[in-house]
Each structure stands twice: as structure tokens, then as C-alpha cells.
Amino acid sequence: MITSGIEEKTFVLNLGPQHPSTHGVLRVLLEMDGEYIVNAEPVIGYGHRAHEHMAENRNYLQFLPNMGRVDYLHALAFNHGYCMAVEKLIGVQVPERAEFIRVITNELNRITSHLLWFGAYLMDLGAFTPFLYCFDDREHILDLLDRITGSRLTYCFYRFGGVPVDLDDDFIFGCRAFIKRLRSRWVDYHNLVTKNVIFIHRAKGVGVFTKEQCLLYGITGPSLRGSGIAYDIRKSEPYSAYPLFNFDIPTGENGDIFDRYLVRLEEMEQSCRIIEQALDKLPNGPVMAEKVPKRIKPAAGEVYQAVETARGEFGCYIVSQGDIKPYRVKLRVPSFANLSLMVESFKDNLVADVVAILGSIDVVIPEIDR
Amino acid sequence: MLLDSIPKALAPLNLEKVAPGDYSKTGCHLEVAATPAQMPAVAEALLQEGCFLESLTAVDTSKAAFTLVYHFANFSELCRTVVHASLAKDTEAPTISHVYPGANWYEREVYDLFGIKFAGHPNLKRLLLPEDATIHPLRKEFPAEAEVKAEAPK
Question: Which of A48, A236, A336 sits opposite B78 (nearest CB)?
Fold first, then answer.
């Protein structure tokens, strides 16, 4: 602080809303004291599409395509959460093979999300090459998912009671080949980035989330596990076919950017393990439950279903009043809570670290705006 | 076991209802009903038990009242607690953002979309809609389709 009679003043720096590193349309008003941030106030809502209001004016099936558009990077997890919530309301059991297909596609989608984060985040930090590597890998999954779901990004693949199409041999073969290929790439990834001294200096000890902060703000996902809390809905509240597979929950120690980065890289390997086991054990049978009513009209009641997305916990809370339309749908999205803590962690940091911290929690702004 | 310790921690507050829920149907292990005025005390008791605030929202239940819905979960043990608090329309609910800072944004969102005011909130401004908006779209009286008042160009 300067105390030589010069008036101390802060100024406001506007970050966004159109800024490549905000990963969507996010605006943050940064109150600066020189290069240090005194206060930060985010302005969100630029991408508000009123999904929750739409839900109240559509029937259950008509609202399903919206789920691919809330978090477009891990659309299948949102499909999964909403379908499971409705299945609980109408009491439909999903056949085992369909559960396996859901897990396989879900984990493939999780890898695409983490790969995109990996490339885009490192580009934010000034490294261009990793982006090319991971988009090359990501393209293989998009082709695989395109083959069975029919779309590359905003998937709408699950139905109430199962999945509409079965996997074919080409998909299974392609999936195994892809996992083999991805595993051979980890060495390159680590050599390129994890051991890169510039990245280490920007990531270690920066943007720390403490365990207490995580509890108070309700942080979930890799951002939480980077702080050393092994909370993953796939393990702690097992759903679908996840209890049948062996996988670990990677955690960090310090809760800084570097730990969150390592957690995400390791999670991709764990997803590969889940997919491999699911392909090995894939049971025969139908992929759609037999008695799914065409007209979905659940009895009055409410349900909360949580699933683990690439960014944390997605909770789908549906209130039914016995109508063909939901009475209320609340989408509890992970980035909403994560972003509200991140703004706190900006304080007393340098402006140069803002982009590093912002990217490290992997925000998808349309998911926050809904 | 949180299923035992949470009801014990909530017992001194004399809540309307603390009962085990049907997890396979509702996804919640404990169902609690409280008045909005009791919510800061409920939140403090749940924080002592190590729970985090999963979600905070409202439902436009009837012409006379909203229902505030709070979901709490725990990092170390599977036990989801849902708290329903019925709030008469045109009354204010006390904030819980001093207990859970994460509630700050959730309450702003509820204010934005339902017009429910939270007394004691440090920064109760609109969150998702523009600052100069005059609507609260998740109220049931809000029309499903926007009224189009197109005027022919002169």
C-alpha cells in the first residue's frame, strides 16, 4: 500500500462477457488495487433460456431434448439424471443391458468433456499444442457416439425405460481400439504438460479451495476432489450399473489448480477402466423396458435424483401433481455452486491468475444460466 | 449414523415433522418440515452435522403460499435431508446465507424467478434475468407463452 500522500483508489476492470477464456458468456467485474483483486462480482444470465420454465409447459418426453442443451459438454449425464428421476416417478425398471449401455456412453462422454477442458484450459494458459492432441483424441469418441446416438454434441439418447438403439459390433470394436489408443497417449500428455515447468509455476499453490470452503459452498466434482474429499456420486450414492465396476476416486491434497488438473487426468483413466469392464461384462437382453406407458402421467409426489457429471453433482428435482406436465423441475447444476466459490478465491490474487483459476474449475456457463 | 444423529440435532427446534423418507421413491432419506423462521437454526444444526447445501429452490404451491425446498447432503455418508418450509405469499423468509455462504446465489435466484424476498440477505439482486426486468417467471400466474404485441412498422 502506498502511503506517501497519494490518494488510494481502486478501479473496476471488466472481464467479459465476450472473452475467449470465460468459456461462454460470463462477465466478471473486478475491483482492482493495482494488479491485485480486491473484490469480484460476476454477472451471469446472458445465456438464460428458461429451461425450468419450459419444463412446466411441456410434457415429460417433450422436455427430454432440453437436457442435452443445459451442459452441452456432458449432455448424457443430464439425460441420465432426468431419465432416472422420471423412471423413479413412474416406477419403471431399466433392463441390465440398457444400464450398461448408459454407463459406457456416459463415461465416453465424460472423457470428451475432460479432453475438451484439457485442451481449452491449456490454451487459456498459452499452450497451443495440447489442444491439437486432445481434439484429435476427442474426435474418435465423437465418431463413436455419433454412430449410435446420431449427434455429435447435444445428445438426446436415453429414453424413459432404457435406450432406443442397441450397440453394434463395430461400436464395441471401435471402443476397445479407442481405449487402447488413448492409454498410449497419457505419456505424451504428461510429458507435454504435467512436467512443463511453466504450467507448474502457474498452477501450484494458486486458486486453493480449502475443505471448509467446499463444505460451505457445496462444491462437487473434480474441484472438490482436488481438495482431498473423495466424494463422487458414482461411489457414494451408487446408481445405474456403477456398483458392478471397480474404479478409484482420484483425489488431490492441496486443492490448488495443479491438483484439480491431476484429478481430471486420472479420472479419464478411471473412465477407461469402467468402459473396459462394462464391455467385458455386457449382458444380453432387451435395451428397453417392456411396460413403459406412452402417456407419462406420474402420481403426485416429488423426487430428487443426483448423478455425477464431469463438473460435479447434477441434481434433478421434479415435483409432480399427477399431470402430464411436471409441476416444477429444478436443475441443480454443479458449476453454479463452483462458480460462486471461485469468485471468493479471486480475492487478493493477481489479475494474471484470474484466467488460470476460472479455467481450472471447468465452468460451462450455459449450464449455470439454464 | 446421520440418520439417527440429524433427528437428534433437530429435536430441540420443535419442528413440524422430522421423519425418515422413502429413498427408493423420493431420493431423500430424511424429510423435514419447518417454518421459514426456523430455517437459520435448522441450517446451523445441519452444518454442525457436516452437511452441505445441495440445492435451494421454491415451488409455487398454491395461490396463498410458496414452499421453500432445501436439500442437504453429506460428503462422508449417504444421507440426503430435504426440508420443506411453507411461506405465505407477500411475506419474507430469513436468509441462511450467513450460515452457508453458498446459499447467497441460490436465494438470489429464488428472488429473481419467484419474487420471494430473503430478509438479511447481503446482496439481494436479480441473478439470471436482467436487472431492470419486472417479471418473476416461475410464478404460476406468469403466462406460459409470451404475449406478442407486434405493431406494424409505420
Answer: A236
Beta strand residue intervals within chain A, DSSP E: 11-15, 27-33, 36-43, 301-308, 313-320, 328-332
Q: How far is A237 from chain B (nearest CA, A)?
A: 6
d(CA A366, CA A45): 8
Q: What is the DSSP string of B37-106?
A: GGHHHHHHHHHHTTEEEEEEEEE--SSSEEEEEEEEEESSS---EEEEEEEETT--EE--TTT-TTHHHH
Per-residue pLDDT of chain B (154 residues; tens, 9 = 90+): 877 788 788 878 778 788 888 888 888 888 889 898 888 999 989 898 889 999 999 999 888 899 999 999 998 888 889 999 999 888 889 999 899 998 999 999 999 999 899 988 888 888 888 888 888 888 888 877 655 455 556 6
Closest CA to A265 of A72, A113, A91, A158: A113
- Binding-site residues on chain A for chain B (CB distance < 8 A): 44-45, 48, 50, 52-53, 56-57, 85, 88, 214-218, 224, 229, 231, 236-237, 301-306, 313, 315, 317, 319, 327-328, 330, 332, 336-337, 340-341, 344, 369-370
Cβ contacts (< 8 Å) between B145 and chain A: which residues? Answer: 57
Please report, to the nearest 10 degrees, the dihedral formed by the alpha carbons of residues A324, A328, A330, A331 taken in order. Answer: 20
Residues of A in contact with B75 (CB under 8 A): 214-215, 224, 229, 231, 236
- CB–CB contacts below 8 A, A to B: 102
Chain B: closest CA distance from residue A88 (Å) = 6
Instruction: Tell if the CB–CB gap between A330 and B113 is shorter than 8 Å.
Output: no
Tens-place pLDDT, residues A165-218:
888 888 999 999 999 999 998 888 888 888 888 888 888 888 888 888 889 998
- Chain B: closest CA distance from residue A213 (Å): 9
Give, in order, the Cα–Cα distances in Å from A156 to each of A82, A85, A263, A305, A346: 11, 16, 28, 18, 36
Among the partner-chain residues A48, A50, A315, the one whose CB lies closest to the CB of B71 is A315
ipTM over 0.95: no
Report the run of H or E that residue A327 belongs to, with start and end: none
Listed residue (B70, B57, B69) closest to B138, CA to CA: B57
Give chain B's largest Cα–Cα span. Answer: 71
d(CA A24, CA A311): 15
Q: Which of A48, A231, A302 sits opposite B128 (nearest CB)?
A: A48
R_g of chain B computed on alpha carbons? 18
